[in-house]
Amino acid sequence: MPMFEYQCDACKAEFEELVFGEPESVPCPKCGSTKTRKLISRCRAKMHGFGPGFPDAPSSGSGGGGCSSCSGGNCSTCG
Fold this sequence. Notes:
The two termini are about 45 Å apart. The protein is mainly beta. It has a 3-stranded antiparallel β-sheet with strand order 2-1-3, with no helix packed on it. The mean pLDDT is about 75. It has no helices and 3 strands. The protein has a domain at about 5-40.
């Protein structure tokens, strides 16, 4: 569903609105002003596991633990 974040220029309130299409104006639920602007929203996703090239992926060394000296699985002893 297209949920967007807006900020009211009149009262500075931030709010979310379910919007279909491109409306001319979205009224502020706090003060009723139509002088609002769409904010750039952050996107969040939950990952289940690691993919190739993922920066926090455990190395393919010894099952993710590594040796006692590096504990990362990427020194010459773990190889």
